[in-house]
Every structure is written in C-alpha cells, then in structure tokens.
Design goal:
This protein has 622 residues and is an alpha/beta fold. The protein has helices spanning 5-27, 45-53, 94-102, 116-142, 179-193, 196-199, 219-229, 249-263, 291-303, 326-329, 345-355, 367-373, 379-395, 403-415, 426-444, 479-500, 510-525, 558-585, 587-600, 605-613; strands at residues 41-43, 57-63, 68-73, 83-88, 106-109, 161-163, 208-212, 234-238, 267-272, 312-318, 336-339, 451-455, 465-468, 602-604. Acts as a processive, ATP-dependent zinc metallopeptidase.
Length: 622
C-alpha cells in the first residue's frame, strides 16, 4: 500500500481511542499500588501491637500518609529470621508513635509522591486533544480534490480532470479517417484562439458539440486532440461519474463542474459516454424523480438556462444517440451533432499510415492492400490489427512485419484464434464440401461478393470458414443482392444434401439458417420485397428501455402474420431450389476443389476463381 499521512491517521485513530480507555482502566497510577510488592505477608494491627510488646519489631516504615506500615520483625514464630510484614494502620492511633519511640524502634515515614495529577492530565487532556486534532486534519484533507479514503465530505465535488494545457501528446495530425469531424473541431479551436474572426460577422461560439458514432471510431481521440491543440483549460469527465447512490450528488457535481468552468472560461468541457446521464426522462419505473433525472435536469439548466455560459464549449461523445433526451439535443445545448462513422477506403488507408509509423513493416507490404481487405473496420480495429501483426512477428522472432502476419491478424480479429488443423477423415471432407458449397455459389452468382479465402483451419467455434470481400457501400442493397446472399448462405447445406444425402446433413449450417431466416424476414416486413406489398410491418428502431426484442410485435393482424410466414417460406424455398441446381450442375468442379482444399487446407480467392474458370464461365461482378 502506498504510504500517505491520511492512511496513517485513519489507522491511528481507533488505536488512540482504544489506548485511551486501556490507560484509564489499567495503567493510570493510583496511591494504593505504591508498596504492593514490598511485603510478602500481612498482619493485623492487634497482632502488630503484640509483636511490639514482645520486642520482636525492629523497624517500622510508614507509607500512604500513615495508613500503611511495613515492619521488619524477628521471632520464633517467624523462624528467627527477619521478615517484612504489611500492616494496615487505623485512621487514628496517636499512641502508636509514642509506643514506638518508647521501645526505641527504628521509625521512618515515607511521604506519597503526588504523580496522580500529572497522569490524569496526560490521560484526560492529551489523548482527547490528539484525537480532535487528527479528526480536524482528516476533515480538512477530505474537502480537497486529492481523493482517497477521506471523501466523506466531498460527494458533491466534481471529479473532472482539469488541465490548463492538456498534455495528451495527440494533435489533429494524429487523427485520420474522419476528416469531416476533424474540420468541425479545427474550427472550434480557431474560434477559441481567435474569436474576432467570427464575432466580426456576428457569429456566436457553439455551446455544445455531440459526437455520435459506433465504438472505436475515434470520438475520444478527437477530444484528446482538441486538448492538445487548444491552449485553453480542458475539463474531462465521464458521464457515469455524475451518478451516485446519494440523492442530489449528481446535480451538485454538475453545478460544481460548471462553476469551475466559468472561473476558467473560455474553456472546453468533455463528457465521455454522456448516455449514462442523458437518457430520456420518464422511462424509468416509479416516476421521474430519480437521481439520474435530477442530474440531467441540472445539466440542461447549466448548458442553456437563465444564466449564460459564455466561453464554455461542451463536447460529448456517445454511441447510443437513440436513447438521449430530446431536450439535450436541441440547438442551444448541443448546437452541432457530428457523426463519426466507420472509415471508407481512404480513411482506413490514412489510419493505417498513422499507426504504421512506429511499426517495422516490410517495404513490400502495401497499406492500400490491407485497407481494401478490411472494409467495416473501425480505427480501433485497424490499430489492433497492426498491433496483433507486430505481436505475431515478435513471437516468430522476425525483424519485420510481413503480409503473412497481417493476414493472420485479420483472420484472428474476424473469426478468433486459430485452432488445431483437422485430421483427414469423413468429418474433414464433409466440412470441405460445406465450405466449397458456400464459395462456389457465391462465385457463380452475379450479385454476390467475391470469395476472399476458403479454409479448413478452425477458428473460434467454426470448424471451417469461407470469407467474402464485402463491398464498400453497404447502405443500399438491392433485392437481387439479398437473394444472392441467401443462396450463398444456403450453399453449405445444399452441398451436404447433394453429396451425402438428407440423412447425413449436419448441424454445421445452424448459423447459416439463422442468417437466411433473418434476411428473408427483413425482405418481407421491413423492405417491402414480397407479394404482401410495399409495407413496413416492423419497426427497425426497437425500444431500448423495453428490450431490443420487445415492443415490435402486435403491429399487424394475425392474418398478416400468417402471410408473412408464408412469404418467408416461399423466398427461402425458391433460393434453396436454385442453390441445389447450382451444386448439381457443378458437381465435377466441386469434387476437384474439395480435393485441393483437403490437401492445401486454404485456397486463396484468386486461385479459387482460376480453377473454376477452367470448367465454366464466371459472371462479371457488378
């Protein structure tokens, strides 16, 4: 544990309290214990007088202000040896002193040392004073922003990371693939540095910018770049840090954050994962007076209420814009909403160039080839891709990253870790026919994507895999393309049926059939691509507060539901029939490809197409 004075005091306080009571109960000195251990035996006062009359007493020492006497006596009863005996003297015995002097007894009186007052002062004043001082020190430290165990008095304080000049080490040149979003923020930085360019024409600085996009697209990276570029105070906080179990704490932290921001304006406030505090109000069970909604109300007031926040720019990031409250998204609060989407080819190439600067990559490796092979990858995925390739290179004791390590890294990210190769058996041959079925159907269909790779090397839960190169533009998909994808997904099951028979089909197509059913249902209920007509029967935007699968049923009658099921069945059966015909008509090619796949275990897409060209024509892909 790291040493700190606060931790030392926290552990010392209970020890001080316990020590105080132990001192009071056991160790505080009393007048009765002065001579407890001087004499080993006791004697009554009457017996003492008898010893005195018999001349057996030789010396008397008086203690405790005349209440106790220690005598030295010798006699037959004492074995003729001098012994010290304790005698409790009565309160008034004036004849005793006279009698002792008459018998010439050696008499000595010992006054009591008065240490009791000193020890009482130590026990009753010093310990409580030390306790109070320690508590005052702890409470003073807990009110500071240093954090730690003593935060009992700082629940309402903002936990924002505050930096006058944020040294993130990231600037706009380190951000690639999201040029439109970067331009927005470069303009904001210019507004902060030279506001006269904008105010001269009556422009006002935007109050808020909301970054919306899938995870890993660079939203937080943009915020770090703003912190690195702008020479203004930068506050960074997560939305979850506003939420506490104590009522009113979140709203108090919002007030405290904006109070600090106003004192340091112009400045930037960055709130990451704002959906943790900015969800739609009125969606919880039990009304709208919960802690989260109070925090959101305070945030709305601070951003655009009666009191202006001149010079404060709030930047927020989320990947769940569908659940944000509408009052938070209106102009005046978040004036701009910037979409940070998955990068296209040029964006991926720029991102790869940034992350390849500190990697030792073989000069023969073309980043454009990697960018073309990774459609759908986010910036974080591409960074992870090059890092995985570097790890594989170091594991194989190589000095440079080659295309082979990059290919393995792509396969690992998409499908999982590589497993042990299958031994040559009936199971391996069945899997080979299954994967070749997918690949040949996809290759011979004009509207299907090209085959990238077919392999029998297991990855993740899959015993074999067929990769297709997806197109760049996935926003618009035609009816023929969807049907081609359904037929491509059915190619594995169709190959099993033709080659091995209905009794030998396996469970390997379970995931394929789920995809087929989902695509066919969307054609009918969402895209209007069926005989039912151009109707949208299911809402794609499901209610996130009721569960993604709830709230979407009941939008049509039972009669329509029966028609939907019938149309889905017809589409799948039609595609299945055409797929069976393709497998039957190309059985010779399939057998040849299976033999090659079993021998090599992996066939590249171009090699696969070259083999097929020897037997039939491949349609020109659109």
């Amino acid at each position: 544990m790291k040493f700190s004075w606060k931790n030392l005091l926290l552990w010392s306080l209970p020890i001080l309290v316990i020590s105080f009571f132990i001192w009071q109960g056991f160790f505080a000195p009393t007048t009765n214990e002065t001579n407890n251990n001087i004499a080993n035996s006791r004697m009554t006062y009457g017996r003492f007088l008898e010893y005195l009359d018999m001349g057996w007493v030789k010396k008397v020492d008086i203690y405790d202000n005349g209440h106790t006497a220690i005598i030295e006596a010798i006699g037959p009863e004492l074995g003729n040896r001098v012994q010290k005996i304790r005698v409790e003297l009565p309160a008034s015995a004036p004849e005793l002193i006279t009698k002792l002097k008459k018998n010439n007894i050696d008499l000595d009186a010992h006054p009591t040392k008065n240490n009791t007052a000193i020890w009482n002062l130590v026990g009753n004043i010093f310990f409580p004073l030390l306790l109070i001082t320690s508590l005052a020190f702890l409470f003073r430290r807990s009110n500071s922003t240093t954090g730690g165990p003593g935060q009992a008095m700082s629940f309402g304080k903002s936990k924002a990371l505050f930096q006058i000049e944020a040294k993130t080490g990231i600037v706009f040149d380190d951000v690639a693939g999201i040029d439109e979003a970067k331009e927005e923020f470069e303009e904001i930085v210019t507004f902060l540095k030279k506001p006269e360019y904008f105010t001269a024409v009556g422009a006002k600085i935007p109050k808020g910018v909301l970054l919306i996009g899938p995870p890993g697209t660079g939203k937080t990276l943009l915020a770090k770049a703003i912190a690195g570029e702008a020479n203004v105070p930068f506050f960074s906080i997560s939305g979850s840090e506003f939420v506490e179990m104590f009522v009113g704490v979140g709203a108090s932290r919002v007030r405290d954050l904006f109070k600090k921001a106003k004192e340091n304006a112009p400045c930037i406030v960055f709130i990451d994962e704002i959906d943790a505090v900015g969800r739609q109000r009125g969606t919880g069970i039990g009304g709208g007076n919960d802690e989260r909604e109070q925090t959101l109300n305070q945030l709305l007031t601070e951003m655009d209420g009666f009191e202006g926040n001149t010079g404060i720019i709030v930047i927020a990031a989320t990947n769940r814009a569908d659940i944000l409250d509408s009052a938070l998204l209106r102009p005046g609060r978040f004036d701009r909403q910037v979409n940070v989407d998955i990068p296209d080819f040029k964006g991926r190439l720029a991102i790869l160039s940034v992350h390849a600067k500190n990697k030792k990559i073989n000069p023969n490796v073309s980043l454009s080839i990697i960018a073309r092979r990774t459609p759908g990858f986010s910036g974080a995925d591409l960074a992870n891709l090059l890092n995985e390739a570097a790890i594989l290179t170091a594991r194989q004791r190589k000095t440079e990253i080659t295309l082979q390590e990059i290919d393995k890294a792509i396969d690992r990210i998409i499908a999982g870790m590589e497993g042990t190769a299958l031994i040559d058996s009936k199971s391996k041959r069945l899997i080979a026919y299954h994967e070749i079925g997918h690949a040949i159907v996809g290759t011979l269909l004009k509207d299907h994507e090209n085959v990238q790779k077919v392999t029998l090397i297991p990855r993740g839960q899959a015993r074999g895999l067929t990769w297709f190169t997806p197109s760049e533009d996935q926003s618009l998909i035609s009816r023929s393309q969807i049907k081609a994808r359904i037929m491509g997904a059915l190619g594995g099951r169709a190959a099993e049926e033709i080659v091995f028979g209905d009794s030998e089909i396996t469970t390997g197509a379970s995931n394929d059939l789920q995809q087929v059913t989902s695509m066919a249902r969307q054609m009918v209920t969402r895209f209007g691509m069926s005989n039912i007509g151009p109707l949208s029967l299911e809402n794609a935007d499901s209610n996130p507060f009721l569960g993604r699968g709830m709230g979407s049923s009941g939008e049509y009658s039972d009669e329509i539901a029966i028609k939907i099921d019938k149309q889905i069945q017809d589409i799948v059966q039609e595609c299945h029939k055409k797929t069976i015909e393709i497998i039957k008509n190309n059985r010779v090619i399939i057998d040849k490809l299976v033999d090659i796949l079993i021998e090599k275990e992996t066939i590249d897409g171009q090699e696969f197409r070259n083999i097929i060209k020897q037997y039939t024509n491949i349609p020109q892909k659109s």
